[in-house]
């Protein structure tokens, strides 16, 4: 069909249009689990079921559906009666939109240098959100009140972007977690400096599971103002949410979500997934499992090092979520990658990141340990 052919034109008489999809091998051996990222995992079966169950009849678009109404109640159950939930498509969009909705154009955001908004979002908070990001050096990916105070520069100076927000990742890019007490201290520091506190919670569930606490205990109860709440990394299919906790901010969300290309017309399918994850215990059981697999991996590698079976590797960060960071030589990593995929960690030389997911099995972990030992 050329550019001049009307879209309504039928094929010539006797012509049959056929499409043969490529063959797909659905056997588990054809699609092995790897350790490159929890984004590599598929969607949780319960989430797929929720999508199918939402695929019935007609319902108002853009959030006027019962699944999105239900999500609002689910989020209030976790984060308190003032919580407002806004489903979006992805984590970077959630971070940009959350910060943009709460801050003026002249604002700066203090965060860890390793934070996703600083290192891994192609400058989206600055280029799309119009916000200056100030990345502060941290020893373990975690901000402290002292680090924040030292990063607050140029207050009132018209030549400087104004620090008006602090953003922390929970868990951090180094796999460490903030305790409730640590977040409270950061919130008090931020609020004392007339700044808001944003949490990039792409793995908030993993942190809460590791600390054996609730989502609200790590956010609402300790002074967090706004959250980017993760879903994809815990088994959803392109669904995240922004949760506004402080009713004094985020008034522009209704308009900015559309402007930032994050407003879903068929929002019921995002909300149905988020309800499946957060409407019960699925978020905790999935996060607990991923964390447990990471602990098994870290313990197994540490034991291999201690017994001399893998003398050239070492764990370089605390395993407090679903990721293990290991120092190993390039040639060792290359040999181990003949069996499993995993990523080099660009923030440290000869360090690799081994990420577990909700569907990682003990057999997967033990096979990876064996591959590294053999390498």
Please count the helical segments: 13
Largest sheet: 7 strands, mixed
Spans of at least 5 consecutive residues whose pLDDT stays below 50 are 1-22, 24-28
* Main structural class: alpha/beta
What's the end-to-end separation, in Å? Answer: 54 Å
Q: Oligomeric status of the shown chains?
A: single chain
Q: Give helix and strand order, one letter per element, not per position.
A: HHEHEHHEHEHEHEEHHHEEHEEH
> Helix fraction?
25-40%
Strand content: 5-15%
Describe the strand arrangement of the main beta sheet, using strand numbers: 1-7-6-5-4-2-3
Form type: globular
Average pLDDT level: 92
Radius of gyration (Å): 23 Å
What's the total count of β strands? Answer: 11
How would you describe this structure in keywords?
seven-stranded mixed sheet, single chain, 11 strands, alpha/beta, 375 residues, globular, disordered N terminus, 13 helices
Structure description:
The protein is an alpha/beta fold. The protein is 36% helix and 14% strand. It contains 13 helices and eleven strands. The strands form two sheets. Strands 1-7-6-5-4-2-3 form a seven-stranded mixed beta sheet, with helices on both faces. Strands 8-9-11-10 form a four-stranded antiparallel beta sheet. The longest helix has 25 residues, at 282-306. It starts with 44 loop residues before the first helix and ends with a helix.
